[in-house]
Amino acid sequence: MAIHLSDLAASRVQHFLENRGKGIGLRLGVKTTGCSGLAYVIEFVDELREGDEVFESKGVKIVVDPKSLVFLDGTEVDFAKVGLNEGFQFKNPNAKDACGCGESFTV
Amino acid sequence: MALLQISEPGESNAPHQHRLAVGIDLGTTNSLVATLRSGEAVCLPDEQGCSLLPSVVHFDGRQALVGYEAQVLLSSDPLNTIASVKRLMGRGRDDVKRLGEVMPHEFVSAEDSAALRIRTAGGDYSAVEISSEILKELARRAEQSLGSDLAGVVITVPAYFDDAQRQATRDAARLAGVNLFRLLNEPTAAAVAYGLDRDADGLIAVYDFGGGTFDISILRLNKGVFEVLATGGDSSLGGDDMDHALGEWIIEQAGFTDIDALLARRILSAARSAKEQLSSAGSTTIRIEAPQPWQTEIKREQFEALIEPLVKKTLSACRRAVRDAGVAKQEVAEVVMVGGSTRVPLVQTMVGDYFGREPMNKLDPDQVVALGAAIQADILAGNKPDNEMLLLDVLPLSLGIETMGGLSEKIIDRNSAIPVAKAQEFTTFKDGQSAMSIHVVQGERELVSDCRSLARFELRGFPPMVAGAARIRVTYQVDADGLLSVSAQETTSGVTADIVVKPSYGLTDTEIESMLRASMEHAREDIELRMLKEQQVEARRVIEAIDAALAQDGSVLLDENELSQIQLKRDELQAAVGSGSTEELKNLIKAVEDVSETYVARRMNASVQQALTGKQIDEVDV
Q: What pTM value is reported for the model?
């Protein structure tokens, strides 16, 4: 079981954590909402919750709750610029279908 | 594929429910837009990677050009290219007369509106419309950068902006189709960008030295509220003056004599780039492309000697602001640097020496105001937990009402935290008075004539009462943007007047004074005109009475000679009504009365006889 960050994603996360001044890592997860069933969660982590799985990818601690992990296993998180916009993207092998905007998906 | 941002723990929004918000620094020279991405405030660059958008708009009948595209047309098409429109916001024709000398535009003002418009090849545009073009461009950039519609924006304004200028800025936002969360004072935004709103209470000086303007603000942070204690500065002192000082030195050194516009531009741009070099380097080379190319080496010390008088000027404005704030400069806990000119090392050291502490300069001084606005916009968009305190602002000037004798009664004192609402009761001055005129003024002076007039309205139709019996409750309400609405209610009858305050556009103290003086100079004429009108009305009344009487019994009571005498005088009066002076009319009326004296007496007797004829003495009502 594993989740990876791309080089650029890892350096952006490091930067945002430094700028924020606190936080131990990046929480990735899914929640059941959105137009196609599941939506990604991407948050700073200040403290671990019970049952959290912790991975390390390129020096960044990635925290995932066990329920989310089954939907995220094998995912690579990238950081992309599209036109003027920029942000994190999930490349998730578990996702079968995504809504047009890609904010939510089904498995 | 969606591009996601990192949220605070437990605050991930459901898809499509992000509340995107940006802060906009709508500047005199340049404007910026900023937002929070993954917890970090950042300015949003354009396609070329530039954060700054020159506040320049060009109109030629097609789509308006904004920014760099418009800026390049400033020298070739100055009449249709508008820069520094911020200086015109909320200003009327009279204010602009002074500026008109430096702005090349043709100003027109519509009959029905106090707002001024600039004539261009693409039509006439008001300052509000021109600013809205800049806002539209920034909003477009923000929506492209964030991939979604904006929930709202925070726009910054100078702390010294009055109600009319704030209202104009708000109108520009509405016209641009952006939802304005609120206006924020520029120095407050700068302090927020440095996180000072989360620090301990204390005094903060915001030193804002831009391209063309210098502002100093002394703020006091008190329980999460920024009070503006004092503002000062110089609206025509900036980095451009440093370029000119260095430019003059170049001309002197190089011995240029015949300087045309092209050479002048080259010298200035060489001066500017040397200034920028010297912010990091100890010396640099200046090269001028001229018929005889010229170059020289300049040391930072030489440049500093040239600009020291300018920096000293800013420090004396600081000294005044500190004094106005009624504090000692040692009490100032933090000094925040804003504006590109604060990159000059000499500015840093002299300001640091003056306040006796290291100025805060970690953030890009061009961006700091926009960054603070973005942080505030994010809070207002509801992206922060409730325990994040909402930043409050204060009123820069007291708001009052005119009372008998032309005195200003303050209803909301300056430095009250906003939003705020306050009410005060007033009463009538005369018996039977059924209306009251309410005059809203802004300022600290005791006399209304020394304050700024914001609005006038009337409360009408309450029942007449003896003087002092009516109870008129006047409520002043200032919303979070520092904008005012006023309502009045006569409480015994419940009659109310709800008005929209339309700020009267920017009268200066001198103009108000000259208007007052004019009303005094015309006082005599006004009275004389009034007396003439009164005599004309009296003459018409006399003629009508004579005509009616003669028609009734003129031929019975008067012989032919008497009748023609009266007719003659009556006709003379009739002829003079439209043209005669007050004195002539008075004499003619008297002549008519004199000549009719016997006639009037006879009529009196006749009517008495008629009343008594054939009646017993006891039947007569005496």
A: 0.66
Contact B368, B160 (CB under 8 A): no
B12 shares contact with chain A (CB less than 8 Å) = yes
The reply to whether omega before B419 is within 30° of 0 (cis) is yes
Bridge-partner residues for B60, per DSSP? none
Q: What distance in Å separates the CA atoms of residue B493 and residue B535, rounded to the nearest whole number?
A: 40
CATH number for the domain formed by residue range(s) A4-106: 2.60.300.12
Interface touch A87/B14, C-beta < 8 Å: no
Distance from CA of A41 to the nearest CA of B (A): 6
Other CB atoms within a 10 A radius of the CB of residue B142 amount to 25
Is the pLDDT assigned to residue B365 strictly greater than 50? yes
Mean pLDDT of chain B: 83
- Complex prediction ipTM: 0.81
Decide: B379 and B160 in contact? Cβ < 8 Å. no
Q: Which CATH number fits domain B395-521: 2.170.130.10, 2.60.34.10, 2.30.180.10, 3.90.79.10?
A: 2.60.34.10
At residue B152's C-alpha, the angle toward residues B504 and B159, to 5°, is 45
In chain B, residues under CATH classification 3.30.420.40 are 17-150+163-183+371-387, 195-362
Question: With contacts defined as CB-CB under 8 Å, which chain A residues touch B37?
Answer: 86-87
Lowest mean pLDDT among A98-102, B89-93, B309-313, B413-417: A98-102
B13 touches A: beta carbon within 8 Å: no
Which residues on chain B are in Cβ contact (under 8 Å) with A27?
Answer: 9
- Ranges for all domains in chain B classified under CATH 1.20.1270.10: 523-612
A89 touches B: beta carbon within 8 Å = yes
State the Cα–Cα distance between residues B19 and B39, nearest whole angstrom. Answer: 14
For residue B246, pLDDT beyond 50 = yes
Contacts of B141 in chain A (CB under 8 A): 84
Residue B407 predicted with pLDDT over 80: no
- Catalytic residue status for B86: yes
B186 flagged as catalytic: yes
Measured over the CA atoms of residue B297, residue B303, residue B306 and residue B307, the dihedral's sign is positive
CATH topology of domain B195-362: Nucleotidyltransferase; domain 5 (3.30.420)
| Helix, coil or strand: residue B324 | helix
**Number of neighbouring beta carbons within 10 Å of residue B266:** 18
* Class level of CATH domain B523-612: mainly alpha
Report how far Cα B343 is from the mean position of its chain's Cα atoms: 31
Phi-psi region of B225 (alpha: psi -120 to 50; beta: other; left: phi over 0): beta
Among B46, B208, B215, B393, the one annotated catalytic: B208
Range B337-359 average pLDDT: 95
Residues in chain B within 8 Å Cβ distance of A87: 2-5, 37
> Any residues with CB less than 8 A from the CB of B548 and at least 6 apart, and which?
none
Query: How many other CB atoms sit within 10 Å of the CB of residue A71?
Result: 18
Q: What is the pLDDT of residues B128-174, one digit of tens each?
A: 999 999 999 999 999 988 887 888 999 999 988 887 888 889 889 98
Band the pLDDT of A34: cuts 50, 70, 90.
very low
Tell me the three state secondary structure of residue B487: strand
Catalytic site includes residue B208: yes
* Interatomic CA distance for residues B508 and B95, integer angstroms: 7
Partner-chain contact A16 B6, CB within 8 Å: yes
In 3D space, the residue among B170, B143, B136 whose CA is nearest the CA of residue B154 turns out to be B170
Pick A87's closest partner by Cβ from B4, B8, B44: B4
Rounded Cα distance between B585 and B578, Å, is 10
CATH code matching the domain that covers B17-150+163-183+371-387, chosen among 3.30.420.40, 1.10.540.10, 3.30.750.24, 3.30.980.10: 3.30.420.40
